[in-house]
Amino acid sequence: MAQILAPSAQWQMRMTKSSTDASPLTSKMWSSVVLKQNKRHALKSSAKFRVFALQSDNGTVNRVEQLLNLDVTPYTDKIIAEYIWIGGTGIDMRSKSRTISKPVKDASELPKWNYDGSSTGQAPGEDSEVILYPQAIFKDPFRGGNNILVICDAYTPAGEPIPTNKRHKAAQIFSDPKVAAQVPWFGIEQEYTLLQPNVNWPLGWPVGGYPGPQGPYYCGAGAEKSFGRDISDAHYKACLYAGINISGTNGEVMPGQWEFQVGPSVGIEGGDHIWCARYLLERITEQAGVVLSLDPKPIEGDWNGAGCHTNYSTLSMREEGGFEVIKKAILNLSLRHKEHISAYGEGNERRLTGKHETASIDQFSWGVANRGCSIRVGRDTEKEGKGYLEDRRPASNMDPYVVTGLLAETTILWEPTLEAEALAAQKISLKV
């Protein structure tokens, strides 16, 4: 699952001249997903009727699809930019579209924009204007052509970052000369759960009931073991099309649960790419009529939770003698365990129980090849004496800007007292 063993060939997003092909993601591709759901659960929803309408070449829905997939590139230089930002809960994603006069290659070419913060829980009604600053751009797999997705962060009209703008602080950390010199790599493993609409129960599970025990579902294949593969595969291709540095996917231990990995990414890119990948997943599940959940423990009981394991390394960790640097980083992480846990996602205490491949939320531990620890070090890293560490504590709903920034701050910028360092060295445990 960890995907941080090789450097990214290109770690800064660069927009290339797009193909004039129509958007690769049309709703026709969802017929198999929705029809399977209708047959399995006999759900009455608009998605069911949409699929049957698409079977008619002359139907109204089909004509709408033709317009949705219309390539306007030969007729105008104008493009559509979808501005994306994080809402008031810190996990919900919002977006709106605007016309840009010509194609762009960098976020700096785009104008700032405002939105009604009182409708997203981010500003009072009497002073509701919040300003979006474009920060990163990706190709739009839904509209195709030269159209783009724009990751933004949010500020007051006076230029102050609003409380839910976690990107601002992370960008400051990654622009620090000490951090930049270490070229921090991140490989983030985003787990998520697909839910049936209306009932909020995992995809493939009998409504109100349970499937067989965990075991055959992880990386499994077959109608009785894999639920939602079309969504995972569609998301994979959408990420590649957009320019997201996605490195893999797999079915997870709990049925109806999946994972994708992004990285290795350098610095702030890790957060930008995860947020854009999450947005694509929200849009794809929207089209498929399935609900996306990032809850760290969507089903109570003897089921795995959902995490967002974060693989991390610095230049010093990747060079000869790097294992000693990794151990020093782990020492620092042990001393700031509470600070990290408090920032690693809501509801994480329901997941970090010491069971189901997790460590206890109250106790810091590290080990080689041990998935029951707070920090895992791979066998290859131990053998080669250099490499990376995996922080297994972040929840699936964590903010990647917060987690990546905090890891860099704790391991590069923060220095404990000698007394605290000596005490921690005696306390932290190694589990192999």
TrEMBL record:
It is found in: Plastid, Chloroplast. This is Glutamine synthetase. One of its GO terms (molecular function) is glutamine synthetase activity. Keywords: ATP-binding, Chloroplast, Ligase, Nucleotide-binding, Plastid, Transit peptide. Pfam families: Gln-synt_C, Gln-synt_N. Residues 166-432 form the GS catalytic domain. Residues 79-159 form the GS beta-grasp domain. Its EC number is 6.3.1.2. GO terms for cellular component: chloroplast; cytoplasm. Homooctamer. It catalyses: L-glutamate + NH4(+) + ATP = L-glutamine + ADP + phosphate + H(+). The gene is GS2. It comes from Solanum lycopersicum (Tomato). The keyword Plastid applies.
